[in-house]
Recover the amino acids of this structure.
């Protein structure tokens, strides 16, 4: 159990049986008054943000989270299916949990899944992923608004800006942290 | 030299200048500088302050009791700059070990201490202006005076007594009222509900109010002042009430500071004020965090 003096940025606690992370923290105490611990919290399952103020004497259960090495298998109606590399058990992550990460999943990709008990609540992708360009119009010379870049869509449906020389069918490397183009991949 | 200390150099130089200027102000105003022990058998019981224990004694949470015993012995105008300790208080404006300036005047009441505050600030800042975190605060006009009930009326949807009944008083002060205070000129918040001032005298004709005030500049709470209670019996009752609601205050939960209570009957009418020196330095050096104005926050030791 944690008490109020343990509260700080980055601490993960259970609120209503769901894991929350403290993303902002301030201690204050008006003259002769009670200690107040103002926390900005993020629900690690739904992503929702809210403020809550605690007082001395309150206690908190730690949210125990583990990261498991998993392999992405396939997507079906139930969601995105991953397999634990250690015990070969399969779990499903929903589109809501994945967010934009769904655009960077490639069959058999090795990822880390953040597990809260039996539930997968987050994903850490490899930093770089290779994806093939499926749609990209030829660059129009003199289109100064976009510089030397043009829009392109890759096989997963993700759209990004690429340099003018990237054609449909080219394999490109994307940085999953920023979602931006890195380089062409030699095949 | 450690990197974080090198970054603090200019602020620590300014801090030294401020402390020396405070001392010069009180000496020029005919105050006697006193030193009282920082390790004491027992602090005044206060519901929301946890003393740091030292062997079977405590580190002072404030030099208040010893300074009032000096008043009782006939010392008239006294001041002290000393370290105080309050356990588990740590944040942008709080250190568990901090520096407090306290001064006391015999035969004065709390309103006259405000004149001292105005004079001290003008002595510290001949330019009569403070720039703090984007606010410009002017000192060459009278400070704003705002009673607690006016502040609740202006900045909240409830009254002080209703807020106490609903246990929301501290939250409203901290999050709705404090950030609005002292943004253009210093604000004096005064006349607290009596139950929130266990060492203060009640206002004549208004037993529900205590003669207590707080000074705010740029949303920072800087000083707390009382007309001091000098009725030993009433003080004993108020201490017992505070002691009764302290969850854990160390090894002597039921003891009261008896030598202080014994001396209190000899104390003349008096007023006293405690001003946080670290916060004053924050304000005068435009520092966002108290960590910037002390050489070593506890985490850096």
């Amino acid at each position: 159990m944690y008490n109020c003096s343990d509260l700080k940025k980055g601490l993960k606690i259970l609120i209503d049986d769901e894991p929350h992370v403290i993303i902002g923290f301030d201690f204050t105490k008006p003259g002769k008054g009670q200690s107040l611990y103002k926390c900005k919290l993020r629900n690690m399952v739904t992503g929702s943000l809210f403020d809550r103020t605690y007082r001395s004497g309150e206690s908190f259960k730690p949210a125990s989270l583990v990261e498991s090495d998993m392999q992405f298998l396939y997507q079906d109606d139930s969601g995105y299916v991953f397999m634990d590399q250690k015990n070969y058990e399969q779990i499903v992550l929903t589109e809501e949990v994945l967010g934009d990460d769904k655009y960077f999943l490639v069959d058999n990709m090795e990822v880390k899944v953040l597990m809260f008990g039996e539930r997968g609540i987050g994903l850490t992708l490899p930093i770089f992923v290779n994806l093939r360009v499926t749609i990209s119009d030829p660059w129009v010379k003199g289109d100064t608004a976009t510089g030397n870049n043009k829009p392109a869509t890759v096989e997963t449906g993700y759209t990004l800006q690429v340099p003018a020389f990237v054609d449909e069918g080219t394999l490109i490397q994307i940085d999953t942290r920023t979602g931006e183009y890195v380089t062409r991949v030699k095949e | 030299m450690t990197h974080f200390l090198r970054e603090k150099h200019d602020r620590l130089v300014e801090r030294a200048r401020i402390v020396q200027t405070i001392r010069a102000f009180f000496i020029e105003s005919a105050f006697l500088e006193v030193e009282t022990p920082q390790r004491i058998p027992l602090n005044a019981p206060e519901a929301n302050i946890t003393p740091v224990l030292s062997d079977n004694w405590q580190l002072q949470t404030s030099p208040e009791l010893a300074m009032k015993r000096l008043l009782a012995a006939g010392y008239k105008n006294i001041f002290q700059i000393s370290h105080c300790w309050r356990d588990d208080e740590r944040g942008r404006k709080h250190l568990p070990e901090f520096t407090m300036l306290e001064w006391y005047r015999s035969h004065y009441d709390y309103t006259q201490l405000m004149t001292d505050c105005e004079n001290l600030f003008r002595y510290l800042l001949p330019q009569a202006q403070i720039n703090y975190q984007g606010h410009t605060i002017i000192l060459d006009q009278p400070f704003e005076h705002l009673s607690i009930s006016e502040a609740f009326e202006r900045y909240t949807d409830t009254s002080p007594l209703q807020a106490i009944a609903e246990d929301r008083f501290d939250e409203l002060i901290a999050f709705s009222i404090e950030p609005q205070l002292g943004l253009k000129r210093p604000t004096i918040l005064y006349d607290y509900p009596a139950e929130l001032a266990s060492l203060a005298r009640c206002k004549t004709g208004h037993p529900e109010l205590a003669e207590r005030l707080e000074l705010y500049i740029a949303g920072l709470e800087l000083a707390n002042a009382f007309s001091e209670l000098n009725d030993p019996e009433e003080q004993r009752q108020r201490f017992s009430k505070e002691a009764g609601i302290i969850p854990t205050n160390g090894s002597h939960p039921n003891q009261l500071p008896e030598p202080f209570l014994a001396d209190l009957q000899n104390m003349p009418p008096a007023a006293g004020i405690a001003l946080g020196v670290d916060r004053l330095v924050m304000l005068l050096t435009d520092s966002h965090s108290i960590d910037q104005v002390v050489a070593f926050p506890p985490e850096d030791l």
